[in-house]
Structure formats: structure tokens, C-alpha cells
Amino acid sequence: MSIAIVGDPEDLAAVYIGWLASRRNVEVLWLPEAALGVDWSFAIDEGSGQARLRTGGGWRDLRDVTGVFVRFHPDPPLPPPLSLDDGGRMLFVQERREGLHHFLQSLSCSVVNRPSAGRANASKPYQMQWLRQAGFSVPKWVTTNCADTALAFAAECENGVIYKAASGLRSRVRPLDDELQRRLRHGTSPTVIQEFVPGRDVRVHTVGDRAFATEVVADGVDYRYQQGSQYAATTVDDALARLCCEAALAEGLVLAGLDFRVTPAGEWYCLEMNPVPSFLPYEMCSGVPIGDAVVDVLCATPDRDASARLQEVQTVAQPR
Amino acid sequence: MSPHRLTLVAPVRDGVAAEVGRAAARRGASVTWHAPADLAARQVALQDTSCVVDGAPLTAVLWRVSPDMNLADGFTEADRRFATNETAATWIAALQLESIAAVNRFDAQAWYSGLRAQYWCDRLRAAGVRVAPACAGDADVAPHWRWHPYTADGDCDLPGRPARASMATACREPFPLSRHVSLFGTVPPSSAHPNVERAARLLFDWGIGLATIGSDIFGRVHDVRVLPVLDDTPLLAHVAERLTEYLLS
């Protein structure tokens, strides 16, 4: 049995998944983005349906690979010894990345995750609309660059508000502060301002139809930037776990990380669904077996009926 | 009764936007044209069910913007990319609202895949549409085949095999193409191959009111352009009338 790991061979999640698979005596094919065309390559002939993979061991049928785990580096290198100026380098890297996306889209095995999956996370207001329509409770929000609108919205929210980037660019979540008010007064791009939900943070990772919940105990509004956050396995009720899995699969995500704030009264508010979740800190600190579940999926014999069903779900799962 | 309001977001020389703007003005609509590069400077308030831009509710939008356009001219170079991303994320979400008529209403998957021709071909194929087969990567390719770069329209001479392997290039057999306008799920006039008509219906299901589809004599789809340039004057006038009717209805 073989699985492949595509992208950045130094990504910690990729290294961990490779290690877990090796422990099960599964062959792990490392397919670094920078080595495409050098140490490995693929050949897909859509006319004949033939799909082959070349690695150090020669050519093989791609159907022998049962699953692919993907982690891309944001700034991948050129293949050695190619050297290009900045413009040429950018074009090469973009073209190669799109080629790899095409490759991953064409595979019939499990891909964790396909590039087209979970794209809504790149627009927070888009994803919040989608999450609400999918059945989650979502905190009240406004996306604005208008100071009056922001302050009026904040005044409506008795527990205060936080703000964060509207796009998928990583940003620190902060309470409404003087800095944002100054930026709004001087002109800035739209920002998501959201009602603050007092309570605890819970991350639910989904892997196929399995859900793993981890509680994060921290003092501030964004535990990712805090020292000393504590992680512990927790439980999520069956209906919500099922909703998380269905929502992730509807977005094409085999692996997803859903962030919740849970109020003292037990209300679960979904903040976002991450298509490239950093699951390692949660697993290492709480022991929830997310990585093993990912390897289970990668090693499963392809279920072509399930793939077809997933495609149907994806097709009808648009926000409107 | 207040007049209809139409917002055009398009480069200043966009022929489709200009024609739609004229058609809307003839119908008495209030037309506002935003150049993409000015978009980040607009005052926006987007909520779950509504969007207000510069103090007026957004009700109808012709969106002729591609994901690689700069949306933040008034920002410093250091902030421009961030502001462009934030602005695009806001408008793409606004276009999904029930209260807004939008052409094209790109979903997140399409927008963040770059709206590239190969993306549409992959999506159409997965939905059962016949798409012209490609050979990708380190594959044997006949010398007369053409390379279709993922990041640009059109085709080029084949690069050498090592380059094809390193860039995972997609290459196709060349065919003369017919180009069809896909307008709200139909392909006027109705003489297109059923496969092309099916592609048009799916595109409309995915929010694409206006596109062009390139197909060969077998009806196989070769490419899809979702920000098409329409040079044919009578066709452009017809398309603009239909778009205006839809957006103001």
C-alpha cells in the first residue's frame, strides 16, 4: 500500500503523517513541489484515462496510490539548478502550482485536501454566511471600513466586539481598540467586526465522518498568540459533530478545523472552518488521535461511489 | 418610486460594462461605475442580509473584476496587497446576498481558484460535461499539440519535455474552436451542441450569468472565459439588454 505526500516535505503536519503511515508499514512517497520534474513527475492522459507517477523506483500506475496528503509552502523554491529573475520565477512558481492543483483535482483517491476545497475560508464574511446557512450559530458581525457603522455596531453588542481580517490572511483577533478606530477615521479597507462571545474556545477537527474536539483554556481573545494556553480533549454532542462533518464534506474537506466559542449556557457559536488546520498542537497536548484518523483515510481503498456522492454534495452546497 | 440603482465594477474601458451602463440609463436607472482600483476606498457596510456602499444599498452589480486586479490604488505599496485581499473578500461575500442581483456571482471556490480556464474545465468535467482531453505533466505528446498555460489565455508552442514535467503543463490537440456566448444558462442562438448547452446551464447554476465557451466540432469544451470581451456590436447590444433586464428586474 502506498500514500503520497505532496508539497512541502518540511511541513510538520506532513512529516508527522508520513511518520504515522511508516509505522503501519505503508509506503510513503514524498513528492516535494520543488523537485517536480527532477526527482519525480506525473503523466496524465485524459484521453486514455492513463495516470502514472515516476519516482526513484520508476513509473507506476497512480491508481496504486490510495491517498494523498497535501501541504504547500507559501514560497516554494525553483527546481535545482534553474535560476530565473523575479518576474520569471513568479510566473514559473504560479504555473507549477496551478499544474499541481490540476494534478490533485484529477486524482480519484482521497486527497487531504483538494485545492478547490474549503475556499470560502479566504473570505470570512462569505464563510460566515455559509456557516449560518449550513445550520451553525454564528456571532453577529459587520464587515466595514466606516467608523460610524463600526461604533454603532459595537454599541449594540453588550459583551463588546472583536475585529479580524476579512480575508484569509492570518491576522490577530483583537478587541475593538484605538488603533482600529484611528485607521477607520483615516481610511482603511473593510474589516470584520464581530460580537464577542464570552466562554471557552473549542476546536473541532473533522476527518471524514469522525470529529475530535479539543478545549483550549486561555485568557485572551486569540489563544494562538498566547503563551501558556492549555489544551484538553473534550466532547461535542452527536448532532453538532455530525453537522461539523457534513459541513466539511460539503465543502470538499476531508480534514477541517472548526473553531467554536461555547458560552457558559452551553451555546456553541461557530467562528470559522479552516481548510488547512494546524492539528498538531491540539493532538500533541490533548492526545486526540487526529493524525491516525487522517492516515486511516489515506489508506482506505478508494470508494468511487462515495467520491461521486461528494461531488454531488459539493455541486449543490453553494451559498445560494 | 425611486429609480433602480445599478453598480458597475469594471475597468474604465470595459465594453460590456459601458453598454450595460447605457442600457440601464435608458431605462432610468441610477448608474454608478467603480473602477476596480478604487474599490478599497469605497465606504462599505456588509452584514448578513444587506450591503451598503457609500451610503446607498447595493442592489444590482455587474462585476467585471478578476482576482489578479489591484483594488487598492489609494493605499501605500506596502498595504496594497492586504487591502486588495480584504476588499475582494468583502465584495465576493456581498455578491452572494439574496438582496443583490449580480453578474457574475462568483462563488469562493471559483474566485479563489483564479477563474482560470483550466479550473472551469476541471469543474465541468467533474459535473459530467465532455471536455477536450489534455495530457498533463511528463506525458507523451504529439509534436503538433499545443501548450495551454494555466495562468494565461490562449495557447503556445510545446515546451521541451523537461519543462513540461517541471511545470506540469497541460497540452491539447489543436482544433478550430467555435466560441459561444453563455447567457443565463442558454447559448443563443440555440444551435450549439447539447454538451455546450449543458455546460452553459451548469455555469449559470454556479452563478455565471455571462461567459463564453470555446468548443470543437465534437461539442467538447476547450475553454471558458467568465470575463469575456464581446467585439461583435449587435451581439454586445443584445447581451447588454439581457444583462440590464436581469439586473434591474
Write the layout of secondary structure elements.
The complex is a heterodimer of chains A (320) and B (249).
Chain A: E1 2-7, H1 12-23, E2 27-32, E3 41-45, E4 50-55, E5 58-61, E6 65-71, H2 86-106, E7 110-112, H3 124-134, E8 141-144, H4 147-156, E9 161-164, E10 174-175, H5 178-186, E11 191-195, E12 200-207, E13 210-217, E14 230-234, H6 238-250, E15 255-262, E16 268-274, H7 280-286, H8 290-299, H9 304-316
Parallel strand pairs in A: 1-2, 1-6, 6-7
Antiparallel strand pairs in A: 3-4, 4-5, 8-11, 9-10, 9-11, 12-13, 12-15, 13-14, 15-16
Helix pairs in contact in A: 1-8
Chain B: E1 5-9, H1 15-26, E2 30-34, E3 44-46, E4 51-53, E5 56-57, E6 60-63, H2 77-94, E7 101-103, H3 108-111, H4 117-126, E8 135-137, E9 146-147, H5 161-167, E10 170-172, E11 178-183, H6 194-205, E12 210-215, E13 221-225, H7 233-248
Parallel strand pairs in B: 1-2, 1-6, 6-7
Antiparallel strand pairs in B: 3-4, 4-5, 8-10, 9-10, 11-12, 12-13
Describe the structure.
The complex is a heterodimer of chains A (320) and B (249). By secondary structure, chain A is of the alpha+beta class. Chain A is 33% helix and 28% strand. Chain A contains 9 helices and 16 strands. In chain A, a hairpin with a 2-residue loop joins strand 4 and strand 5 (58-61). Chain A is globular and about 65 Å long. Chain A starts with a strand and ends with a helix. Chain B is of the alpha/beta class. In chain B, helix 1 (15-26) crosses helix 7 (233-248). The interface between A and B is large, with 61 and 65 residues. Strand 3 of chain A pairs antiparallel with strand 8 of chain B.
